[in-house]
Amino acid sequence: MGYQILITDDEDVLRYSCAEFLRLNGYDVVEFASGIDLLYYLEQGGEQADLLLLDVAMPHMSGFEVLERLSLLPVSLPVVLLSGYPETDIEADISYRPFIYLRKPVFVPTLLAKIEKLLATKVD
Fold first, then answer.
1. What is the number of domains present in the chain?
2. 0.90 cut: is pTM over it?
3. What gap in Å lies between CA 78 and CA 50, rounded to an integer?
4. I need a labelling partner for 89 at 20 to 30 A (CA). Which of 1, 77, 99, 103 fits?
5. What radius of gyration do the chain's Cα atoms show?
6. Would you call 73 helix, strand, or coil by DSSP?
């Protein structure tokens, strides 16, 4: 496949298990425990990434704040937004595109299908 996926989630077990699943399915994965670490990576040349899995509720910088900052960078990065909040509460607050919302807990085949859908629409 050759796609690089960035995972940003402060919950170590969830981040690690998701990363391992994606690696087993042929993706290159880079993990971040915070939005601050993710943004630093992107600002330092991590623009070869193809997709971002982003948790909404994180300490220090929420997923919403990450999306606001991401929109200021010269990066075109589709996002799979992960949250325990209802979808209607999420979509009203987001202007960043493209993104897909998935409610936690995520059914793994659903996650893979959504990732493949977003990657299929990615323009290089």
1. 1
2. no
3. 7
4. 77
5. 13
6. coil
